[in-house]
Fold:
Amino acid sequence: GNSVTQMEGPVTLSEEAFLTINCTYTATGYPSLFWYVQYPGEGLQLLLKATKADDKGSNKGFEATYRKETTSFHLEKGSVQVSDSAVYFCALWSGDTGRRALTFGSGTRLQVQP
Amino acid sequence: DSGVTQTPKHLITATGQRVTLRCSPRSGDLSVYWYQQSLDQGLQFLIQYYNGEERAKGNILERFSAQQFPDLHSELNLSSLELGDSALYFCASSVGGGGGNQPQHFGDGTRLSIL
Structure:
């Protein structure tokens, strides 16, 4: 079946530090990949997506590249801010019949200190 | 604001009881998805409805059921509640029937606490 593995958190960084959150996946076919962010007390918000190999999704300074050869979709940001503190979820969507749903990783909590 | 509305925000009840969670999708979205977020299971897909019809089923227990009404709002019914059902229940919506190019927009969730 489909699965998504994220690095364990929490990840604690100082403001302006470089961020990487690792995500690898297992899926049949050619899934679409997503990063969602959940701020405290809120629902998930789509951060970025990539729908085919070598696509780069980007939004609000965050980037992730769909790497089929390593089945990865790592999230990066060059300079984090305190306001980026949240839980980040990597997810995939597979078009396999009977399993048309988002599969989420366990989430990685990011804490950015001033 | 995602445009997806969930009510109530919090629900406290006892074991054995039945509750109904409500979701109004974004204007124009035809699909509604239900997810359960708990500490031990993470974020799990329960069920999807598209334009009133069940479209996909995930890890939904037999004690749980859902429906989507003609006005496209959806309700998730949880019965014979157990302590382990305590979780955050999210609703999401998307324009079409689901696909890699159709991002899902999430509500703020209903926090269910079973005492």
The interface with chain B takes residues 31-32, 34, 36, 41-46, 49, 51, 89, 93, 95, 98-107 of chain A (CB under 8 Å). The mean pLDDT of chain A is 92. The first strand of chain A starts at residue 3 and ends at 6.
